[in-house]
Here is the input.
Amino acid sequence: MIEQSANNEAIKNISGIQSVINKKINILSNNDLNKIHDSSVAILKKTGVIFENSEALTLLQNKGAKVDGNKVRFSEKMVYQAIETAPDKVILHARDPKKNLYLGEGNIHFTSGFGATWVRDYENHQLRDAKLQDLITFTKLADTLKLVHIVLFAVVPQDISPRLLDVICTAEVLQNTTKHVQLSLENSELIDYVIKIARSVVGKNSPLPISAGGVPNSPLHYTDDVCKKFMRLAQENIPCFIVCGAMAGATAPVSLAGMLAQQNAEFLAGVVLHQASNPGAPVVYGTFSGGFDMRYTKLALGGPELSLITCASQQLCDRYGIPMGYATGGITDSPVSDIQTGIEKTFGILSAALSGVDVIHDGVSGLLSAGMTTSLEQMVVDHDICSSIEFFLHGIPVNKNTLAEELIDSIGPGGNFMTSDHTANEFRKSLFISPMRARNLDHVHTFENKSYLLENAYNRAKKLLSDYQPVKVGVDIELEINKIINEASLFINKQKGG
Here is the structure.
């Protein structure tokens, strides 16, 4: 079982953003929410879910599921038992314990970006393959940015062996941030080596600073590899992200209610397997389900359908008492940093924040092209977007000092507040001041085709990186990590096709 905190108020003050907005967005009525849940349970009982792993099939059958070949049908009792044992609060540990995150407390957190294969080079105006050095650079930038609470694998380096991606990326990211790291494991083959690396970084008796997870293949299909991940993570008490990515009209019904019911069934099936492996192990809900653009046959990650599913999924999490640890919000379908990018990112992040999700995935990401491309300057712009949303979520503090009645009386009608002590003391707290945005440009001598925001953001990124002083893990730990990577490489070479 994961550790619980006795002081909830202390947790709220140290983890993420505490919103004071009094009413969250509710997409579904209570009646609609019941219908979605009932439909999900009916799907699990009647249609069933495919599990391609023999160990998972045996485990589920022993727990009471009906197994026919590799298709599993669940009773309502099994589903409720899994929901009951899944913890309502999950701690995401970090190398630096002061940066631990507490999900399920009502606070909002942002992640960096995940999985781009290309990098947009601002200085050279080029699009190029992502490299291992880019992973290190983006990780360092994520470590410097205040509103990045969880660090992801920003890119998929194209200059290293695909089969060693998991261990090499884990090693580099953990050495270049003291924040919690959510791993993006390509497969389960090297998961034991990944766990060894995480253990070497924090020591024998400290909680691992990582989480991981997997994605069911919609509709209603868990691969052998994902099953292995879920069972292994549960056994190790490593927080498991069950992330659904259905596409309305392609891998799920085109109607959003139908897609949501199917997505929820997929998630609940994963929870049953996960909790059967180790009751009480930490698990969180995740989604990037959205609309399928029939014109281009691709998932529209920047569309409002994704935001509707995110907000409705949060309501399901509230019902189940399971944290919403992966709500995609900072994605755009645009390939460049343009007006469309600003619209889609802001809408996605703000709607997720107003629905009260625990973690907004890709919130400070830098991602473009539906997650295929990333850029340093866009990442800084995304942080600025999240900063303004943080300001908004803090609302309007109302107290004697902020009402300032005595000051208004002393200044009087027709007066001026600019030189008052109250203004000097309070303006940095009361007003949103961004170093990024243009508010004093000469409109006569500016050019429409030049983005001053991107130029400021790129210069800001360079300055942050030049000033960055990483918290190193120590020479002995570096040697241990290199040893583990070499062991993983030898293991791969011994396998067929290695």
